[in-house]
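Re: that backbone. Tokens:
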């Protein structure tokens, strides 16, 4: 590639060939294994979607029951990992606790047997099962509580929401949370999935891979944006202040959190579904004071930046949904991670089936034949 053709951020550069998901950024289309996100959100659930992403087919009822049973069996986390988490500072961000805890799983399951389908399945089950429990455990321990144990009478999504919100979920709330997990499960080669693939390409263990991906997801330009959106809406404070706020942000060239996307140049199809979920929750449980501000900001950004393809992305309305579900703000990105583990694992499995270590090249802009300057002669 010539220096002229080079674009930072690997823009437009294919990193792999994959059959897991598809995005059309102009049409606003997202498909998992060829099935539209709208159909999966309406008819499927997260565990079934995770199975579809990882093994490439929708499970039979028997396969899904077996998958759920295995996950239920592995939901608890080792006491030693819980004791390790007790040493983490209460002020720490849950994404950092999750990254450390996910990596720690490798201490217990470090043997690598990547040729063995049973090893792959065991890692998939353990990570899908334990990631939610680890997020909840840290949240509760830093509040001085004993970690709530997953309940055997609740399904996967209900249990996640119960552990994160510390209350038995209303059926509508649990269903909406399940849809949120499906919406966040996979999205082709985003930064955290690319991170997972690069780590996977060295044939290391899946726990190190998930720890890499969690660390990448946490940044404010990626999964960390959902938390930033709420802070932004709180800063705006009123519908009347939306325009002045936006003008100030545009003048300072600062990014508007929850807007823009490397691929979507229309409203993210997931944002459309999440906005509908928010409205369902508001109808049953009362309106969120920031929703009207969010809608006004979306309208004004469309006026100012729509011509440049800058519209709401998945992180724009998700925070308003999670607030209404009773999830603490600093757990919004860990919720994203709970869902995206499915996509990261799907790409891990696909990567090791066709593996070659990632080793890109560069465009060198430095000097050559530079003489070594002795210390005494340095200024
Ligand atoms: C996710 O990739 C994925 O699929 C990610 C994700 C997934 O499911 O995995 O969809 C999840 O990460 C969603 C994105 C969450 N992040 C944010 O909401 C943070 C705010 N958004 C921006 O930082 C930005 O839009 C990105 C990071 C999402 C995309 O970055 P790009 O493609 O590198 O775009 P860019 O920063 O080069 O911007 C291009 C132009 C710039 O203007 P110029 O310098 O050319 O004049 O568009 C402008 C930008 O200033 N722009 C914005 C903007 N996003 C882009 N201007 C104001 N506000 C914004 N949000």
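Recovered sequence:
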């Amino acid at each position: 590639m010539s220096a002229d053709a080079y674009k930072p951020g690997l823009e437009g550069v294919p990193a792999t060939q994959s059959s897991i998901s598809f995005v059309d950024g102009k049409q606003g289309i997202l498909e998992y294994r060829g099935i539209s996100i709208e159909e999966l959100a309406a008819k499927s659930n997260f565990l079934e979607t995770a199975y579809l992403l990882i093994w490439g087919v929708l499970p039979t009822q028997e396969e899904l029951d077996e998958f759920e049973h295995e996950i239920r069996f592995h939901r608890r986390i080792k006491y030693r990992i819980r004791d390790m988490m007790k040493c983490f500072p209460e002020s720490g961000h849950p994404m950092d606790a999750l990254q450390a805890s996910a990596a720690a799983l490798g201490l217990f399951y470090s043997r690598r047997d990547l040729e063995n389908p049973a090893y792959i399945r065991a890692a998939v089950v353990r990570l899908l099962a334990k990631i939610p429990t680890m997020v909840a455990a840290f949240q509760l321990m830093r509040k001085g509580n004993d970690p709530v144990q997953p309940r055997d009478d609740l399904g996967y999504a209900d249990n996640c929401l119960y552990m994160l919100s510390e209350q038995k979920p209303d059926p509508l709330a649990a269903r909406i949370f399940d849809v949120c997990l499906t919406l966040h499960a996979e999205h082709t080669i985003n930064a955290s999935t690319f991170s997972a693939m690069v780590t996977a390409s060295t044939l290391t263990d899946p726990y190190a891979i998930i720890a890499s991906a969690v660390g990448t997801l946490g940044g404010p330009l990626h999964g960390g944006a959902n938390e930033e959106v709420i802070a932004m809406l709180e800063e705006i404070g009123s519908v009347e202040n939306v325009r002045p706020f936006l003008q100030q942000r545009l003048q300072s060239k600062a990014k508007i959190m929850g807007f823009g996307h490397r691929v979507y140049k229309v409203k993210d199809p997931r944002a459309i579904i999440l906005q509908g979920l928010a409205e369902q929750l508001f109808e049953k449980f009362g309106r969120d004071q920031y929703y009207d501000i969010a809608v006004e900001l979306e309208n004004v950004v469309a006026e100012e930046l729509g011509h440049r393809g800058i519209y709401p992305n998945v992180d724009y309305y998700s925070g308003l949904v999670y607030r209404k579900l009773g999830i603490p703000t600093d757990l919004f990105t860990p919720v994203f991670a709970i869902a995206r583990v499915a996509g990261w694992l799907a790409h891990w499995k696909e990567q090791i089936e066709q593996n070659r270590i990632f080793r890109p090249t560069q465009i060198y802009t430095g000097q050559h034949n530079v003489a070594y300057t002795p210390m005494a002669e340095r200024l």
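Residues 165 and 327 are 5 Å apart (CA to CA). Residues 225-324 form a domain with the Cytochrome p450-Terp; domain 2 fold (CATH 1.10.230.10).
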